[in-house]
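Re: duplicated header lines in exported structure tokens

Our pipeline writes sequence and tokens for each protein into one text file. With two proteins the header for the second block appears twice in some exports. Here is an export where it did not happen, for reference. First protein block:
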Amino acid sequence: MQQKKQGKWFRYARPYLPYFIIGPLCMIAEVIGEVLMPKCLSLVINRAEELEKAGDAASADQSGVLFSLGVAGVMVLIALAMMAGGIGGAYFGAKASVNFAADLRSDVYARVQQFSFANIDRFSTGSLVTRLTNDVTQMQNMVNMLLRMALRAPGMLIGALIMAILLRPSLAVVLAVTIPLMVLCIVLLILRTYPMFSNVQGKIDRLNSTVQENVTNVRVVKSFVREEYEKGKFYNANRDLKSTSMRAMRLMIFMSPIMTLFMNITTIAVLWFGGDMVYSGDMPIGDLSAFITYVTQILSSLMMVTMLLMMLARAMASAKRISEVLEEPITLTDDGASRKELTVQEGRIEFRDVSFRYYKNSENAVLDKINLTIQPRTVVGIIGSTGCGKSTLVSMIPRLYDVDEGQVLVDGVDVREYSLFHLREGVGMVLQKNVLFSGSISDNLRWGDEEATDEQLRAAAESAQANQFVEAFPGGYLYDLGQGGKNVSGGQKQRLCIARALLKKPKILILDDSTSAVDTATEARIREAFRNELADSTKIVIAQRITSVMEADQIVVLNEGRITGVGTHEELLKTNREYREIYESQMDRKADEGV
């Protein structure tokens, strides 16, 4: 299992393996330079000390200058190699991490696109946005830092430690005390902060959800004068994120002075014992200078490892959240489709003993033992009280949800035997919540048919009673709708969604309360267009207004997840009490209003 998890991330690195290899190798060149530099400097200092003790000032000056120039030339070459290594490491590290993150983000997004409604119900929108953005960015930063520091920090630690021991083994004993203490502090810090980073990402989810909900529904917020309430919600989410982040940051901030304290104590100890050695003549002053530099490098590399591990801890929390999306079992797939090439031809629909629960352990079914046959090329109305399962029932046809029990058949074939693509290509839906996307009106309409001509767009809009207001917009069909279609009214949005569905020319058209925001006269013209434009299609109309379904060939009455009546308008008035009550209440209301 562990090997499988490692392979999951490695496949994002494999296409860019040269970057992952060259980058760290460049950093090794920089490390070698950093380790050699103090030794070169100590040679110059020791040479000067030796010549000074020799007593011949003239020859000492000349010899010292020549020696120093030679070592300086070597140091310049080392510095240039370090610069090339540093630039190369940064460049290839960035290339590798950015490409890694881009591919990972694409796969997470593609996975979300495969989600069924049941899968999406497990994640909030804000959480998915955070996972696609912030969590992937955390992993990108971790990969970049790992490539730059994974070899550099340990390499400098090992190299400097070896050089320090070679210079003066007895003095290196000081490090045998301080390094284990620093490592212990690092381990305790990582164990403490890892769960905190998981909490931080969860708080970011909540904040993103709050912002998205507020911005998306800003008109509702303003119409109900709820700005102060929404500001309070945002303040609480923001404060919660801040306090959680600060708890994690305090530990990281606290670590820096602790590491610095260890570094200073170690340096003082080296100066104390090393000074005695220099004073007694057991150690050249240049070696002491180099040893102090190596001690600084050793402790600095440990601090780099600490930061790397801290970033790794946060990235691991993000990786776990991303894995939850990538490993979420897709509830609706083509795995059981035995007739993947089959397409919807007639539009005959049959429900056989269909039952469904949103929560599978719930005793109460949303739909309970539904049996219904819808003949092709007919108009079927579905009516019932709010929450009785109307939208859920029609969602079974294109497999937005799968039945728990029973079967849904289209043209005599179980919908699970179709490929999702061919099944949904044959079904057009205008959902209860009308959704448009950023872009022009023509871009949105062409969701129904990518190849549609301008004339076909206009004809569909005319049938949906949308052409008149579209032509009045600046630019007409090129008018930009803004995010979510915020530049049009609810009724206009509904008509554009209907036009989009008409362009698809599906064999089955489902209208889920899709004309609730238009007046009755406009709705009548839209129904007429359906009869003319989609005569060969099966049309299912879900409505709250009884006038929307009165002319249907068949009307289905739903109540608490069960079918209580099926028939024409006249038949149901005579035989179905619930239908008659809906009719009388709505007609009486119209009479009272003088309609």
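Second protein block, exported in the same file:
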Amino acid sequence: MLTDARALNSGSSLRADVCIVGGGAAGITIAMEMLNSDLSVLLLESGGTESDAATQALAQGESIGAPLTSLDNPVNLDQTRLRYLGGTTNHWAGFCRPLSPIDFETRDHLVVSGWPIDYADMVPYWDRAAEWVRISDADFSIGAWERRLGVSAPPIDTLAVEPLAFQVSFPTKFGDVYAPELRAAANIEVLLHANALNLAGNDGQRVAHVDVATLSGVSFTVEARAYVLAAGGIENARLLLASIDSDPAGLGNSNGLVGRYFSEHLQIYAGFGVLEPDFGEVSGLQGGEVAITQGRHAGHVHGAKFALGLTDAHLRSAATTGLELQFLPGRLPDGAPLQEQGVTVGDISAMMAHTGPEPGTAVYLQALAEQEPNPQSRVMLGSRTDALGMRRVRLDWQYTAADRRRVIAGLRVMAEAIGAADWGRLQLVPGGVHADAHDNLVSGELLTIFRSVPDEIDLSGFPVGVGFHHMCTTRMSRSVEQGVVDADCRMHEVDNLWVAGSSVFATAGTATPTMSIVALSIRLADHLQELLG
């Protein structure tokens, strides 16, 4: 059922087998996996079923590190996450792809790396996650998607560079999609407008209860056999740091690792290029649509598209980090808005001094890169408090000159592979390409018109955007000396507290995180049901 916490009596004490803090992709997935089980589940959601300004203001904070930008525009910390049912799935672009095998490996050239679980351990959970995120299945093989879409992937497949397939779920707002089943569930109660303020406990080894409050002034507690933090990569760390009953450094933070290694996906408008095939032959770069054929979402239409990525073998041999390259065709699909705007093939050919027959397609290049784990990049608490008296977040996002150098090196490897295959030519101009968003959707994606400003090219200081992907702040590790949670997502130092979401990622990888968030949440739900059942 869905209940408004503002209707409760102050001083109430609620009880459940499992208390989940946060109603985004992770929290809703765990609850739905426990649907109709013998366990009673209480999910605390800060907001309601729609966004409201007062609740969203609780996400405000101070950003003191690298600037946060999206599509060249500065963004505030509260814009990167949403506090109402569904969480940040309410502005999720829908891109789905699993992590890669190398993401789970120990890489000596990184400060920390290696998960306490293997890639193979996750495979069955990605299979199950496909249904919750509303895509066809967990088959991301190039051959399968060439057949399904009827188009070809980029013909680049070397030891260093390979084609990638994405499935794109649009729109999948978990609150809207799964609210009817949550409302009807006999064993699940979703408390709306319920803000967790403190994980109470005097010995630091167990949570005794959660202190909860509403903006209307109602306060109450929740007691459970198991507690799950599923409030996002920033708020998970914030709540642990704010829970100081037993330690002023925060709950489960004896080694000072809660909030450290905050990672984002680095997004760079990298340049432009021309491809030899005409637009029809490379339409898979823009994407196509398919319908789900089975399961609870049969008939739902989602998208798919191709990109290029550095191979795991190259990351190992070059001791580098991951990089993906998406191609945004300069010519939009027939009938799309803004058809006549943007740079033409002829314009780009002239800029590149291209010789020979005019190539068929103009493209812009958008890179997404893995950030090296950095202990100085961290979530902290500031001195200011929010409307509920909780200390606001102070984010110090830090990436390094080495991160930028790896991006440039990876782009050069990709450009050389494309040229060697005679598929096209790329002009890398990081810092010299800017994006202007327009409110027009084609195949579920926002269309963007790009500008090239060659005078602003800066190979060492080019601007870096964010993906709103908050990862690694409660990283999974084999020992308490290297992380915050164990292989089962349980806090190393707190017996009855688990953490869900991308904050437990040990390294960020390059794959967009939502599908792996859901897969890890399914795995955690299985673990809790086995443990508590």
